[in-house]
Amino acid sequence: MIYILPLLAVIAGYLISLLFKPSSSIAFKLLLSFSGAYLLSVTVFELLPEVYSHKTNGVGIFIMLGLLLQIILEFLSKGVEHGHLHHEENIKRFPFLLLISLGIHSLLEGFPLNSSEHLIHGVVIHKIPVAAILSVFLLHSGIGKVKSFLFLGIFALMTPLGSWLKANFEILQEYSVFINAAVIGIFLHVSTTILFEASKNHKFNASKLGVIVFGILLAYFL
């Protein structure tokens, strides 16, 4: 399932992009808030205690390195990981920098998926709105449907590829605690950014608060 679910998440995101307008859809924004809350909760409840249980020096350093890496990647991706993508339509150039950024992000998030079934769910829920935003951008960018589907296909395969590499290369398993720590940093940055933007201008929104609380409780009780 760790290989299939991320692929299905991208397909679901693409279908959402055809049926709704993610940039203005209230339901989409609520899904984004829920995904941020759930991903953050699973990271704190399960992945964070798991890496510290090894009592290995340097875990905190790699968490911060992962956070810094995500900041750098977002300079290239323009924030699509947390539901934003600012672009000029009809650029007609294949967005290689965006692909590289999202590819690295997706590859790394695939490494710890063997550690927790709930983490798989968190990544999948997170990928759906990301794929929807990405699909809207690609289909309106002027690069053509073939290149758009090629981009989405590569993006969809990177997370399963990360899981496969982790399972089949001993050196990655040997240093998995540090890789997982870096992924924690990535998840912390992405999920907290989503939640901070969900409460932009500090305005109270009962619907967003409700889905955020629901995401936290679901991650805890599952």
Description:
There is one protein chain. This protein is mostly helical and 222 residues long. The protein has one domain. Helices cover 75% and strands 0% of the residues. It has nine helices and no strands. It is globular, with a radius of gyration of 17 Å. Helix 3 runs antiparallel to helix 4.
Structure in a nutshell:
With 222 residues, the chain is mainly alpha-helical. The chain contains nine helices and no strands.
Percent of residues in helices comes to over 70%
- Unreliable spans are none
Please report the distance between the alpha carbons of the first and last residues.
18 Å
Q: Which class of secondary structure composition applies to the elements?
A: mainly alpha
Number of domains: 1
Q: Beta-strand percentage?
A: under 5%
- DSSP summary: helix tally: 9
Rg from alpha-carbon coordinates: 17 Å
Biggest sheet descriptor: none
Mean pLDDT: 86
Q: How many beta-strand segments?
A: 0
Which key terms come to mind for this protein?
9 helices; about 0% strand; about 75% helix; mainly alpha; about 220 residues
Topology summary:
Layout: H1 5-19, H2 26-52, H3 59-77, H4 96-110, H5 117-139, H6 145-168, H7 170-174, H8 176-198, H9 206-221
Helix pairs in contact: 1-5, 1-6, 2-5, 2-8, 2-9, 3-4, 3-8, 4-6, 5-6
